[in-house]
Amino acid sequence: MTDPLRREFGSRAKDPVLRRNLLRATDTSNAHRAAAAAERADWEELRSRGAAIRDHTLARLDDYLAEFIRSVEARGGRVHAARDAPAARRIVTGIARRKGATRILKSKSMATEEVELNRAFERLGFEPLETDLGEYIVQLAGEAPSHITAPALHRSAEEIRDLFLARGVLPPGDRPPADRAGLARWLSLAARRHLAPRLREADLGITGANFLVAETGTVVLVENEGNIRFTTTTPPAQVVLAGVEKIVPRLADLAVLLPLLVRSATGQRFPGTVSLISGPVSESLDIVLLDNRRTAALADPGDREILRCIRCGACLNVCPVYRTAGGHAWGSPYPGPIGSLLTPLLSTRDADRALPHASSLCGACSEVCPVRIPIVDHLLRLRARAAAAGSPASPGPLAIRVFSYLARDPRRYERATWLLRRFWGIALRAGLMKRWTRYRDAPSPAARTFRELWRDDGPPAR
Ligand code: SF4
What we know:
By secondary structure, the chain is an alpha/beta fold.
């Protein structure tokens, strides 16, 4: 792993406030997800059907993309193809210019984060306004989202209260309630009061898409706050920016994919609102389909499986690395286990090839993934790919060679662990482990090794 990555993961892991916020939020999400999955007796079958739909679509994506474009155009919409992030920015800002827009409403969209659309808008003098509460919070804080479905998950209610006071969202002298539940409700009402008048002045609305249905040209949007409905219906013009892999063949596929998405993301039986937009709601509907190296990933059957992802965020919530370091440590709009797979596929930065190493390989992510992506297998595959390509982002081959030499001979291994236990404390005191302990713990080895326990006490009783 390169030094910048070590710095990121290490410094975040040592922030106790961040860690408390992360654990509190992800524990709640995990409990809701597990209860929602347990409620459906056919959950495992549903997961297999979801994986099959995604695999089938990705194997025939060319055909379904062509069908989607025909369906959208037949209903009066326009479709644009964006080869990469600069092309996506050019197309969307070009539409905004042609529409004479200045105020732009945005609802939560990973694709717009991926192409850094807000920054492009601000450079050109547009005023993008995030309408999702979590996105609004990170926009006010000048941060990037830290989670796929909960952008401000790393912030406590108390931190958000202080941010709102500093940015004038709360009038000075306003007294927030002391209890946590009351405070959360009070903050969302304050944001609503602050945003509402600005929502009605917008000229253009931009959303992502949860799914794009080929047979009807429908954009499917799932939400709980009602802000997406506002973004798609209030401004005269609408733009959708979504990755090409969001296509599904038929409306009927939503009967499988929506429950998988919603129960895995928020633990709900059904979300607050699902919008199915087929054709322009008002003056115009422009749909920008983003490639950004996705079609290259499709060509490799292993990489293609990663594109099954429906962005539920469940793998982030169970990941011990994510729960410790938080999403910003990935330096990518896609953090957590799926981010460690997607980011190296979609990015050209060499440092991003190290991300598959940001995992303990515990397998919790693969267990919860609603579309059965074998995340751990892909983490190992991408590690091997980076090493084979001689990426400087791969960990030192010397350490691996030394371990492999020791592990191949039981007597050699035993002698090495004996030495390690004798000299561990001395090595720590002499500062030989300084580079490691700057960002991590170095727990002392156990007094008796597993092999000694087995030899002296015998195998555990059954
Ligand atoms: S990889 Fe699976 S669990 Fe993770 S976000 Fe994608 S669909 Fe959800």
